[in-house]
Write a structure and sequence with these properties.
By secondary structure, the protein is α+β, with helices and mostly antiparallel strands. Among the domains are: 130 residues, no CATH class; 82 residues, no CATH class. It has 14 helices and 17 strands. It has a 5-stranded antiparallel β-sheet. Strands 10-11-15-16 form a 4-stranded mixed β-sheet. Strands 2-3 form a two-stranded antiparallel sheet. Strand 12 and strand 13 form a beta hairpin. Helix 4 packs parallel to helix 6, helix 12 packs antiparallel against helix 13 and helix 13 crosses helix 14. The longest helix has 22 residues.
C-alpha cells in the first residue's frame, strides 16, 4: 500500500503532464453546425404530445420532465474538446457515462429536437488510446475527473471504492499477470459499459446505420480495454463500488473481487457487438463476439449462480460468494446469461415482498438485507430509474412483459404523485413509500433531477401507458392500446417520420376508432384487447375501426 501511495504522489507523471496519451483516435464525429440550444418554450409545440385521458397527472409530469431536461442541455464549453451539445446528469459539474447512456433513451422520444444520442460523442472523443473511457469527465474542461486518473501509471487500483477507510486499494490479479502497460484510469472509472445498449435503443427510433458505423471502432476498443484490465484469471471481471456508492455488497469485493454486474455487462456488450456487426454486415464479426459472450455466460453461471438460494452473487477474492442480494443480479436477464429456469427464480424474487417486490419496485438491495433503508438510503434500498430500466428490459427479453409493464407503470405513478406533491422530479425514490429517496443520514437526494430520472415519466409513460414501441429499421411502429379512454400521441417521432395517432374506444369498449396522420408511409401493428391488426399507413390521414374478428 505504501508503495502505491508513493507512486501516486511522487513527481509529475507522463499522464499528468499530458505527454503519453492521445484521445479520440478511434472516433471521428460528423461535423455539427453551431446552433443555439433548444429552449422548452420553442420546442413545446414540436415535441411528441401524449394523449392519455385516463390520467392527466401523468401527462403533466411528462411535460414537467421535459421542462427540467431543457435546463440541463449544454453546449460544449470553449477549449473543452467536446464535439456535441449534450444532456447533463443534473448532479454536479461533471458528465457521467452511464447516466448519459440512460438519458439518451428518453431523449430518443424527442430525437431531432433535443441533444440525445450524440451526447455520447463527448465520451468517445475523450477515449484514451488504450481504449479506456472515463465514466466521469469535467463538464467545463473536458478532462477526466482527477481522482480517477492513474497519475503514477501503476497497476490497477481503486481510489475511493469498497466503502473502506483504506484508500487507495490495489487490485490483485489472480491466476494471470498484471496487464502491461498499466491502465490510464483507476477501477472507479471503469464500470457499467453500456453505451452500445444506448446506441441500439436509439437505433430502434432512428434506423441510423451510419451512426452505428461511426461509433463501432470506439466501442470495440472500449470492450477490449475492459477485457484487458478488468478480467481476472477466472475469466470474470473485477469491480469496486460500480457506481453503487454505498451498496452493502462493496466491502466483499475488496482488492479484486468480481462483480455479477460488470461480468454480465461484458457478456451483454459482446452480444451487442455481434448484433452491431450483423447490422453493419461486418464479415465474420458477429460469430466471434457471440462465442465470447457464450463463453463468459458459462463462467458466470458456473461461479456466480447459487442454486440453493436461486440467485446470482458476486465473488470475493478468496472465491466465496458473499451473502448480499442486490439489484446487480438482474443484469443477467438483460445480458441473456440466465437460463429460463434461472430467470423464473429471479422473477420470483421480484415478486417477493420480503426482498424486491416492495411498494415501489425495484429496491437496489433486498429488503431482507441488514442495513436496508425503507426510505432509500441511496444504494441501500432506493429505487433508481437506471437499474429499473435494466430490470424492465431484461424482463421483456425473457417474455415477462406483464411484470415489466407493472414495474414501469408503478414507477410512473409514484414519480407523478411525488411530482404533483413536490413540484419536481428526484434522483431516486423510496422503496416503501411514495416519497423521494433519502441518504442514509436522512438528507434528501437531488431534486430537479432530469438527468436520468426523466426516463420514467417520458420513456416508460410513452411505451407502457400510451403503448408505442418503434422499430425504425423495419419501418414499423407497434401500438398496444390498453386504456378504455382516449389515448395516443400527437407528433410522435420515429424513422424520420412525424406521426399523430389517436385511439377512441367506443361505448362499452368493444371497438376502438383509430385516426392516424403521417408525413410518410410506415407499417402499424395495433393490439387492443384480443384484437391484433397490421395496417400499411400511407402519407396523409387515415381512419380505421378496430373490432373483433367475427364482426369484420
Amino acid at each position: 500500500m505504501k508503495s502505491l501511495i508513493a507512486a501516486l504522489t511522487v513527481g509529475c507523471s507522463m499522464i499528468a503532464c499530458g505527454q503519453s496519451d492521445r484521445q479520440g483516435v478511434y472516433f471521428t464525429p460528423n461535423p455539427v453546425p453551431a446552433t443555439p440550444l433548444p429552449t422548452f418554450a420553442e420546442s413545446r409545440t414540436l415535441l411528441p404530445s401524449p394523449i392519455f385521458d385516463e390520467n392527466r397527472v401523468w401527462v403533466e409530469t411528462y411535460w414537467r420532465a421535459w421542462e427540467l431536461a431543457f435546463k440541463n442541455f449544454h453546449t460544449p464549453a470553449p477549449r473543452s474538446g467536446y464535439v456535441s451539445q449534450f444532456i447533463d446528469a443534473a448532479f454536479n459539474k461533471n458528465i457521467f457515462l452511464w447516466d448519459t447512456a440512460f438519458m439518451t433513451m428518453f431523449c430518443s422520444i424527442g430525437h431531432g429536437l433535443v441533444p440525445g444520442i450524440a451526447s455520447l460523442d463527448n465520451f468517445y472523443v475523450k477515449q484514451h488510446e488504450t481504449g479506456e473511457i472515463c465514466r466521469e469527465i469535467d463538464r467545463q474542461t473536458g478532462r477526466d475527473f482527477d481522482p480517477w486518473v492513474n497519475k503514477g501509471r501503476v497497476s490497477l487500483y481503486s481510489a475511493w471504492g469498497f466503502n473502506t477507510a483504506e484508500r487507495p486499494v490495489p487490485i490483485r490479479y489472480r491466476d494471470r499477470e498484471a496487464p502491461e502497460p498499466p491502465p490510464m484510469l483507476t477501477l472507479d472509472a471503469l464500470n457499467n459499459p453500456i453505451p452500445l445498449w444506448a446506441e441500439l435503443e436509439s437505433y430502434a427510433y432512428t434506423g441510423d446505420r451510419a451512426r452505428l458505423a461511426m461509433v463501432r471502432e470506439a466501442l470495440v476498443q472500449y470492450y477490449r480495454a475492459l477485457q484487458k484490465y478488468l478480467r481476472q484469471g477466472n475469466g470474470l471481471y473485477v469491480t469496486d463500488w460500480a457506481s453503487m456508492d454505498n451498496s452493502p455488497r462493496n466491502p466483499f469485493l475488496l482488492g479484486g473481487g468480481v462483480g455479477i454486474d460488470i461480468s454480465t455487462q461484458m457478456a451483454m456488450f459482446a452480444r451487442q457487438l455481434a448484433v452491431l456487426d450483423s447490422i453493419l454486415d461486418v464479415p465474420g464479426g458477429g460469430g466471434v463476439w457471440a462465442e465470447e459472450a457464450d463463453s463468459l455466460a458459462v463462467k458466470i453461471n458456473a461461479q456466480l449462480w447459487n442454486e440453493e438460494r436461486g440467485f446470482y452473487f458476486d465473488l470475493m477474492p478468496d472465491g466465496r460468494q458473499p451473502p448480499v442480494k442486490t439489484i446487480a443480479a438482474f443484469w443477467t436477464l438483460l445480458g441473456g446469461v440466465a437460463s429460463p429456469e434461472q430467470a423464473s427464480k429471479l422473477v420470483a424474487e421480484l415478486r417477493n415482498p420480503a426482498t424486491f417486490g416492495r411498494v415501489h419496485a425495484v429496491p437496489s438491495c433486498a429488503a431482507s438485507e441488514e442495513g436496508y433503508v425503507r426510505l432509500g438510503g441511496y444504494w441501500r434500498g432506493a429505487v433508481w430509474p437506471s437499474t429499473n430500466t435494466m430490470v424492465i428490459r431484461g424482463l421483456q427479453k425473457y417474455g415477462y412483459d406483464d411484470l415489466a409493464r407493472e414495474i414501469a407503470l408503478k414507477h410512473v405513478a409514484i414519480v407523478s404523485d411525488v411530482c404533483k406533491e413536490t413540484g419536481t422530479i428526484w434522483e431516486n425514490y423510496a422503496p416503501d413509500a411514495a416519497v423521494p429517496g433519502r441518504h442514509e443520514n436522512g438528507e434528501p437526494v437531488v431534486r430537479d433531477m432530469v438527468g436520468w430520472s426523466g426516463i420514467g415519466p417520458i420513456l416508460y409513460f410513452m411505451e407502457f401507458a400510451v403503448g408505442l414501441r418503434p422499430d425504425a429499421p423495419s419501418h414499423r411502429l407497434a401500438w398496444t392500446i390498453r386504456s378504455a379512454q382516449r389515448s395516443g400521441c400527437e407528433r410522435y417521432r420515429f424513422d424520420g417520420r412525424v406521426v399523430s395517432l389517436t385511439a377512441v374506444p367506443e361505448p362499452g369498449g368493444r371497438n376502438v376508432a383509430l385516426t392516424i396522420a403521417s408525413d410518410g408511409p410506415f407499417t402499424l401493428s395495433v393490439r387492443y384487447r384480443d384484437i391484433a391488426r397490421t395496417f400499411e399507413i400511407p402519407r396523409g390521414n387515415s381512419e380505421f375501426l378496430l373490432r373483433p374478428e367475427e364482426e369484420q
